Amino acid sequence: MALNICVTGGQWGDEGKGKVIDILSEHFDVVVRFQGGSNAGHTVVIDGKTYFLHLVPSGIFHDEKVCVIGNGVVLDPFGLKEEIENLVSNGVSVNPDKLIISDRAHLVLPFHKILDKALEESRNFRKIGTTGRGIGPSYSTKALRLGIRVIDLFNESDLIPLLKDNVDCLNFLFKDYFKTETVNIDLLYKQLLEIRDFLAPFTANTVYKLEGFRKEGKSILFEGAQASLLDIDHGTYPFVTSSTVIAGGVSSGAGVPAKELDYTVGIFKAYCTRVGNGPFPTEAQNGMGEILRSIGGEFGTTTGRPRRCGWFDLVAAKYAKIINGYSHIALMKLDVLSKFEEIPVCIGYRYKGGILKEFPSDIKVLENVEPYYKFLNGWGTDITGIEKFEDLPEEAKDYVKYISDSMETNLFLISVGPDRNETIIVNNFIENNEV
Ligand code: GDP
Ligand code: IMO
Ligand code: MG
User: Could you say which of 27, 207, 296, 416 is the most buried, measured as most Cβ atoms within 10 Å of its Cβ?
Assistant: First the structure.
């Protein structure tokens, strides 16, 4: 029976979505990215070899699977070409039978990246700490109805006026307000015609492609990027990204109706990290964050920035469950906690003499809450090679059960190392097909 599922990040990103998508891909025919852009950095480790993906879906390592970049993605065409060439030079096959790009996807162009960096630098209040990949500006020109889509590259005569409407006023801002580099329209036009020829064989109206796959009874896996607390509507605004990252984004970002999703899986680290600015109630203090960072190798996949590290936050995780409707969760990087004698888990926020159980909308409140921790026992031994849930130390079992029980959700898998193989499948709901 065909099955469609969506996988999204439950925290602030980098939970290990790439690893889970790669593992899940085996059970699906099609893997679809539906939002975000090359701000994403998804890592897949196969037999000790590490691959980094930014736009290409993490199903690409499986031959016979089709990967789709949906209309909701903002696509840096030059970055995508480099990513594809890099994969190919590493022996991964990428061709138009395996990768289909929506002709409705909006492009991220050099002026979006310049604007992203200039805006970030000029902000005095609430600097976001963006990845600098032009994501916010590209979604902004989309909303302004000035965006340039993949399909627009094929209407050569309209491309120059479209570029001019974008660039003329931005160049004025770049030169006279931001005092930064400007964009040469003629050069960009030439580069766009070249990249169009590269993109052409990959490009299609993916709505009809996906509908065709569904009619053939194929199973589709939707790969989220970024994560719930970075969602433009439901995250810690303004310290968020610019797209709908939660499971609901599948409908608009891929053109597949919401009712087609059978399951939604939330990916969580067994602790918590955040890269970029913004409130992070459980950020570890007194050097514990550095210890987590060094054991967990917590440096950004896209920017190399050190990730801020802290403890599992149940208030935030339960909120992420609500907004995505998680049927299952995956708990990643449990091995990173092996050295800790006690592991704090945040079960409420202390605020003005009371305890908040709800994730606040007001970031002023979120910035001022104190985490209320329950301390769970650590297990003190390396768990990396463990393959079965039964073989985990009792304290590790208690830790993961405490989290999944508190979230009232099913535990799909536990990850105990970066490699594809370092995974304990707890409940193979796909093979069991327990809808
Ligand atoms: P994504 O953006 O959600 O796909 O996650 P990233 O790839 O940005 O970051 C996750 C990092 O953790 C990568 O370096 C992975 O290789 C690594 N990783 C994933 N699962 C595990 C795990 O269970 N244990 C350890 N130690 N590392 C893991
Ligand atoms: P993956 O898919 C972690 C963060 C940035 C910044 C904010 C806005 O690898 O989990 P943007 O460039 O999107 O305008 O930046 O969002 N951010 C991520 N953090 N993982 C990501 O993606 C992220 N994508 C964006 O650091 O705080
Ligand atoms: Mg990442």
Answer: 416
